[in-house]
């Protein structure tokens, strides 16, 4: 499974640049392999991203903005959804991956299972 992060390398928005760096920095720091898909330099990437963000995750006006995160073809979410998952120690679940043993997420999951 390949995590794909759709980004715009030539975005004029500092907010978008910051969000892209945040997502990719977190994935790199946690040794989660991912592929950068640039929508600014590659029309196919832009078209694919826009067509595959689900209707209920699109902005009310305009096109979805990067970063958008996918696990292969499965939509995971945008920056806000990623940020919430990170705050909840649930990034691996958000990405559709199994949390590695010893990670905060794996420990939180084990605690929840014990409480049931």
From TrEMBL:
User: Where does it sit, as one GO cellular component term?
Assistant: nucleus
Q: Which UniProt keywords apply?
A: Cell membrane, Cytoplasm, Membrane, SH3-binding
Q: What is the annotated localization of this protein?
A: Cell membrane; Cytoplasm, Cytosol
The record's listing under InterPro entries reads:
Glut_rich_SH3-bd, SH3BGR, Thioredoxin-like_sf
Highest taxon, organism lineage = Eukaryota
Tell me one GO molecular function of this protein: SH3 domain binding
Q: Does the keyword Cytoplasm apply?
A: yes
Mainly resides where? membrane
- Assembly, per entry: Monomer. Interacts with PFN1/Profilin-1. Interacts with ERBB2. Interacts with ATG12. Interacts with BECN1. Interacts with translating ribosomes.
Q: What family is reported?
A: Belongs to the SH3BGR family.
Function per UniProt:
Appears to function as an adapter protein that bridges proteins together or proteins with mRNAs. May function as a ubiquitin ligase-substrate adapter. Additionally, associates with translating cytoplasmic ribosomes and may promote the expression of specific mRNAs.
**Name the UniProt record assigns to this protein:** SH3 domain-binding glutamic acid-rich-like protein
Q: Which organism is it from?
A: Denticeps clupeoides (denticle herring)
Which gene is this protein's source?
Answer: SH3BGRL
